[in-house]
Amino acid sequence: xxxxxxxxxxxxxxxxxxxxxxxxxxxxxxxxxxxxxxxxxxxxxxxxxxxxxxxxxxxxxxxxxxxxxxxxxxxxxxxxxxxxxxxxxxxxxxxxxxxxxxxxxxxxxxxxxxxxxxxxxxxxxxxxxxxxxxxxxxxxxxxxxxxxxxxxxxxxxxxxxxxxxxxxxxxxxxxxxxxxxxxxxxxxxxxxxxxxxxxxxxxxxxxxxxxxxxxxxxxxxxxxxxxxxxxxxxxxxxxxxxxxxxxxxxxxxxxxxxxxxxxxxxxxxxxxxxxxxxxxxxxxxxxxxxxxxxxxxxxxxxxxxxxxxxxxxxxxxxxxxxxxxxxxxxxxxxxxxxxxxxxxxxxxxxxxxxxxxxxxxxxxxxxxxxxxxxxxxxxxxxxxxxxxxxxxxxxxxxxxxxxxxxxxxxxxxxxxxxxxxxxxxxxxxxxxxxxxxxxxxxxxxxxxxxxxxxxxxxxxxxxxxxxxxxxxxxxxxxxxxxxxxxxxxxxxxxxxxxxxxxxxxxxxxxxxxxxxxxxxxxxxxxxxxxxxxxxxxxxxxxxxxxxxxxxxxxxxxxxxxxxxxxxxxxxxxxxxxxxxxxxxxxxxxxxxxxxxxxxxxxxxxxxxxxxxxxxxxxxxxxxxxxxxxxxxxxxxxxxxxxxxxxxxxxxxxxxxxxxxxxxxxxxxxxxxxxxxxxxxxxxxxxxxxxxxxxxxxxxxxxxxxxxxxxxxxxxxxxxxxxxxxxxxxxxxxxxxxxxxxxxxxxxxxxxxxxxxxxxxxxxxxxxxxxxxxxxxxxxxxxxxxxxxxxxxxxxxxxxxxxxxxxxxxxxxxxxxxxxxxxxxxxxxxxxxxxxxxxxxxxxxxxxxxxxxxxxxxxxxxxxxxxxxxxxxxxxxxxxxxxxxxxxxxxxxxxxxxxxxxxxxxxxxxxxxxxxxxxxxxxxxxxxxxxxxxxxxxxxxxxxxxxxxxxxxxxxxxxxxxxxxxxxxxxxxxxxxxxxxxxxxxxxxxxxxxxxxxxxxxxxxxxxxxxxxxxxxxxxxxxxxxxxxxxxxxxxxxxxxxxxxxxxxxxxxxxxxxxxxxxxxxxxxxxxxxxxxxxxxxxxxxxxxxxxxxxxxxxxxxxxxxxxxxxxxxxxxxxxxxxxxxxxxxxxxxxxxxxxxxxxx
Length: 1144
What we know:
1144 residues; 13-stranded mixed β-sheet; 40% helix
């Protein structure tokens, strides 16, 4: 393998240019290599070049020689002297950010990192100043058609007082050629570079006293807290006067009103309780009512005891007439009891949680001595949206999800959205560009009128009066205009596939003509086949660097370069107010029209590399976002899950920023779905899991991670242990945990760069964990610090107030080039990405494994159920699609059971009941084997005339009745404390049987074949039939798609129906009929058929239009079972009608 060194160049449609970063222009280095620099929260730039770091260590040459080169060009010569005049740093930053937003960056393994300047991304013009390729004035230099420099607010940037409009490249040329303005011919003014003066606290260095104190989450505040309650030390009166603005009067203190730091008032407000705000919690835990929970636990104990007695009785009383039937039934019942215990024990401690958003606003967004301007002190939030195939995941759905994120109620400068396109499709790229363009109308409209939900498709489909609770008189007019614009937006999105195809065909036809002309001019044979690539073309007339419609080398699915495009540039730190201009579509006067940063990311893919599907894409986003924005918290959403509650991110921050929040690895929100039939035939809402099991786990160590709608703490994804971790366990468990903690201390010290000599060997291994990006390694302690709660009288380990109120770090081309390199296909080689760091590889259900690894290290998670659903998405309502979804989940569980992620091998940091819950995750698919056998037992009983017990005596009936009643009572109490309905509980029971006899069984078979024989099989659709019309909202519900997963449930139904007929006929014609055994068999067969009723109804399609394949299989199975029964037990010739009914 060659060295992954890569060079960097910038190109546009006419020429290639080098990168001239303002950071380079401020430096005096003569090296042509890029020296990556990052800006800290205090405003200082810290050089992070490989020459200045000790992270290189003794690693392989493959990683040692990695760098980003900027080749010498006429515009970038390695000079021994500085330029004639230095660029104004403010102008440099603004010009660089404009340049980045107009450039699409591509690159990868062993290739040049290129920055292609594009004229436009979509057919229309973009007018928002943050929008990539936003229209503006042209450079005034003769012969230059580039856009003049503009800042993030859309205002012209003119370096000279004569207001001569000039582009970035011409300005750099002017500086290098005498430093004179091309307009007035006067010398540019020399700029003195000073340290920026911001009213923000600097990022403090961590305090390190001893080896055990070198913990990532033990950053101590340099500001001592005010004394509280019963503390006996001397009270700091001077500091109290400063922070409260209290003034001593005649024998007492006069208190100012709230928010009166700069009002100049007399301070005659009512006295407050001292430090009251610091004491108020951001969240509270609410236990379930004791009147419900105590009987619930008592019933669990009673049912457990009855199950034990029943199984003991069953073992002591075999059916000697049918030992095989008795043996199978007893084994199945023992497994069902064991499975019930695994499922029930983690439900003993359910909790509910509530948040206080007003306290969050008071602590983080209210003026204070540390934050005089009242800027938001909330930490940054990076939102990840993943998509892979625009044909299966419609671009319109993805675009609506992006719009709901951009319109979320979170500080604009702290919110960043990343879309991962794992297919590298131009359709997704242009759909995202259209969404960014429409956001300039939709986001201000949502902020102005407080729209909920902020997904335009869902909002305009709402039924009811849209003017309800809307106070502004211009709401109806604004809504009408936005609705008209959204309809046009949908037309553009839906027309993108045809537009891209027509555009590509036109350009390819032109290329064919040119190739033909060149062939004739060179004297070639006109009949020879032309050799030219049928490319996919972008809107600016250049090749799309990703996947082409007609696959080609380096432009096919699974073989394309990495791509990063900043669709919306980072917003300014100050609000950008709109106007009443008609171009804005609505009146945005006194309304902040800034938009969050939006980035398109498509990681590099090459043949021969295992890209690890969604988990690999998420890890690529983790590294990219760490380089570009480094938000300490990460929200991940599927492309069909949108933000339904605009305050959802703030709800999560109430837990992360509360006391003990630094020990929380993630906050999981429940999944809610739309477009499901009112009866929820196939339990798509899954409310029993999300409202019963997840609430119960929240009372132990936290809910499992379910793949979407989850806010992560970034450093928890990096494989670190939680702060202040307590050693638990016995039999040597303490020593092991201590060793792990000491190893963790060394790793943390390596990240902070302040280790001792004895830790040098461990430091050199740091690149083998996170890769060779020095910039990424430097971002880790910054993200950890910014994610800490505020230091106050309650929180002892945190960050000082006001540390995150400064302007965000500027984004330059060098930073994006580094981001390109961390999404290269080779970057994860010989690292711990996917093993301990980031999303974990090796399972179809990477979400459960990732959450398990965090809990196994001692972290805890939180389950946040909001009054208004936080997120909503879509779920398959078709039977076949639903079965395949369950098959994928069950297959992942089987993989977990046969891997090192089995809860049996967990560490002592995993609590006992949490361990049982994770053990049940890996075991539940195996219940399908016993469930399948048990569903056939009633039919076998009816066929043979025997039953699972010798006789239906009173003891058996009492046990059966007690078990059934306790199960029903437990269900009623679960409904009480969870809030679900009885119908939802029953639907869940029905689909448990449907899934257990079909998808779960296939998952076990697939898992066993994979483990034993190494054979990986999958169940695919074999036939399809369409719905009747698009006007039916639930048309897909009636579509029947045949799949092999349907064979076991159909066989069970047909067998039990035939068995009922055979049993009744035999009993009637028997000389001595045994009605008790018949009733027992018929009752259990009816129980099985009731659970499979939704499955049978799904097979019937719409109004009984059953596909022919169902009748064929049903007839074949009926004939086979009938012939089998006749051959096993032929009817007696002496059978007559008669007999007496006997019942014990």
